Structure formats: structure tokens, C-alpha cells
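ingest -> validate -> predict -> emit
validate: passed (alphabet ok, no gaps, 218 aa)
predict: started
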Amino acid sequence: MNSTVSASLPADLANEGQPWLYLASQSPRRRQLLDQLGVRHALLLPDADEDAEALEAERAGESPDDYVQRVTLAKWHAAMARMQARFCRDAEAWPLGPVLCADTTVALGSTILGKPTDAADATRMLRSLSGRTHRVLTAVCVHGQLRVSASQVRWRALDDAEIERYVASGEPFGKAGAYAIQGRSGAWTEHIDGSYSGIMGLPLYDTAELLKPMGWSF
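emit:
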């Protein structure tokens, strides 16, 4: 890893000898969770001409477990290519460093519940989760090494008015399964078996285990 970080990156990354990484994710929750671990990071977001959403397209017959691992690895390879291209254009502004990618999916049985396309789709997903137990899978990849966190979440039964208010709040959009555990849907969650941070989008234990061999101490 190149320890010389240019001024174009956040100033607190400029201390030589301290580990840092690129986070290839637009999720503010993942940034918050890395901050919680004390992992210094800079964003490595897609270029305008990249179709990042295409990487999340489902394949016929693919299980949720296979899906989340495939998508995470695809995101990581795309992010590595992005970093290399930017390094070639401006090595000082984009020094080489480790890249972390993650993907979260919600699974109801063998059905993958991705990000809702509109209000009707969000309503459909929330109704399907009402009063049932579902799984949340989050895969994390650093240096080509992958770990998967699997959690189970049980909701109480929801009425139509609750679902309608939640969809109207806008919170379901851009989130797998049409909800955010750290948001209003927390009031519906009867039981969690697994990683709360994994359900949010970045399992802290698995992330730390991936980073320890690279110089981080927790």
C-alpha cells in the first residue's frame, strides 16, 4: 500500500504509516460504521459513465447467498479497475490502496428482495415481510477476500396504514428489502439473530477480521 496520500484525499489520511482504505460505496451507513471502527477511509465512487446498478442485476435461478457474493466480488473488481485507471491519470491524487466493497440483500426464502423500483414495489416488499422472518445477507470484500454475514430478522404484523406511512416517508428507497433497520422499521422488529451492523450494511466483526492482517488493530 502506498502510504503517501495526497492533499486531494481527506486531510486526516495524510499521516504516513497509518492504514487507510478506499470505500467503494455510496452508502452513508457504511461510512458511519467504518468511522465506528476507527477505519480511516476515502470514497472511491463510480464515474459518471459507469453503470453501477447493472452489477446488481439478478440472474435466473440464483440463490440469495450466491447473488450477494457474486455482486460484491463484481463491485470489488470494478472498483479496483477504477482505482487503477485514476492512478494512471493522476498518481498523486489517487494513490494505490486497499479497496473495500460490500453488498446487502434481503431474502424471503429463496426470493431476493432488492431495492424497490417505486412506491408500489416497496409496498409489495413490506407486505411480504409483515409478520414473518427473513434473512439479511451482507458480503464484504477486501483484497479479494470475501466474508458473508447472515442474520435473521422477525417483524410483527403490519397494517396497511403503517406501510403506507413508511413508504410515504421515502425511507424504503435505495435500500434492499425496502427498509432500514436503523430507521423507523426498528419499531417493527421483534427479534434479530445475527449482526445488527450487518443488517445495516457492514458487519463490523467480519470487516475487522478482514482488516486485521492488513495492519489494523481493534
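The chain has one domain: 11-214.
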